[in-house]
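Backbone shapes recur. Consider a single case.
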Amino acid sequence: PPVITTEGDAVHFHLPAETRHALAEMALRGGATMFMVVHAAVAALLSRLGAGTDVPIGTPVAGRPDEALAGLVGFFVNTVVLRTDTGGDPTFTELLDRVRQSDLAAFDHAGAPFDQVVQAVAPIRSPAWHPLFQVMIAYHPAARPLDPLGGVTALQEEVDTGTAKFDLAVAVSEEGDGAIEYRTDLFTRGTAEKIAASLADLLGRVARDPDTRLSRLSVDPIEHPAWEPLPTAPRPPGAAGIEARLCELFADVLGIPRPRPDESFFELGGHSLLAGKLINRVRTEFAVQLPIMTLFEAPTATALAERVTSPHRAGHGLDVLLPIRTGGDGAPLFCVHPLFGLAWCFSGLAGLLDSPVYGLQARGLNRPAALPGSLDEMAADYLAAVRTVQPAGPYRLLGWSFGGVVAHAMAARLREEGEQVGLLAMLDSYPLLPGEEPETGDDEQDALRFLLRLAGHAARGPLDRRGVVRYLRAAGGVPAELEEPTISAMIDTAINAERLIQTDRHPHFDGDLLFFTAGVDKSGSELDPSRWRPYVGGAIEDHTIDCEHHELADPEPLARIARVLKERLR
């Protein structure tokens, strides 16, 4: 709904005594509280239902954290946002420890007024959702009988108000009674009942086996309502004219006949280089400042026209999962980013393949996030994103440069979990061989030089990160479209990637590998797809592409790669 409503309802569940006792013992062993156990369970459930691995949840707090308030009369209540990291497929015990640490840190600042926190974070605001979280949790101690009031017996009675303040509000009591309050314009009662049952089942499962990994926690799948046609909404004045002009710009930039308004720029043959050209034309034509990522978020003339008239809407251009082509035949192809974390380079595949295409991008490009500590942690995080689109295999994976190393780790993990891998493909990706010593050097300086080179600039002498970031933003091209924190996060991603390649062990994948070698400037090089032989059990098929490593996503090399992929994806 475009505006939050307060119409709601509630469903109830109950935790048996043996489950409550086991959960309490788990909390005691981990130095946690039952509130933290419930928090961890709700975060795990939301993550498994598709909320991602960065799950913010709100909770009410009351008290007087400031001694200056001790003498005042009144009910001092506040809201605290608890940010939960479920990435890396932790066990529930490990997740509970993360929750314990983050909750304690958050409660240390429980006196910070919620409205001031919102102002400091400055999120994209909308009347359709709460600014920092949409799910509230609470844990209630055992209720005490009310004292008689002047000889009158007092009882507590729960009243159904038919309202809901949040999308979901989960409350669990010490006696095991649980309730989920939900907004009826977002959830049906059947869906809310499934969520409640899944939470109760999840708590029962981790009570029996606290070391269960999140990926092994089964949840009742939420059925999405069937699509139904809606009445055509009136269009804002001038929208049709903007849409028509955008179709003309699509045709001009792509060199094709005028497309339909619902056709994707990338499926029509566009790629990341042409995306910059089109966005520059849009800026000039409509006098609006749109970043290049807008085209990845709104790739049709219809969607882009809405951004032209409302340029400050939030998008997904820097999210971990980047939709490049959502329609098509067969299972999706998931493309893992190269060294600096962006997957925009794969946009050209949208017009070259018949299958859906999604990019996988480094976490932390759009908001601060912890860097993965291992290839396996990164693989688990990306697979969680993949499963929001494709819950079961066979999976199709492609990676370029460092992304090939990650795609290989993802494939190996999938096979360990009993899943099928239909395709593992790499674009000029190479591992360290067993016993091979990594090169040593200044990782940050190497990353800065490589980033400048990719942007078409040479560098000599020591480099300063802030200076490089500001230079790139002023020099034009894709880096100029990004904010300074995003470029800095890309540099951190590259440094961490080099560390993982040098220090982490590559797993073994028992399937085949489809490899594309960048053939230019390989004379005398020891880089060869056979380096993967210790880590790949099946056949290694190599196709040489006549280009340099950094040119593999250029239109002509990518077209040759796509012809081979298209045959394999049938």
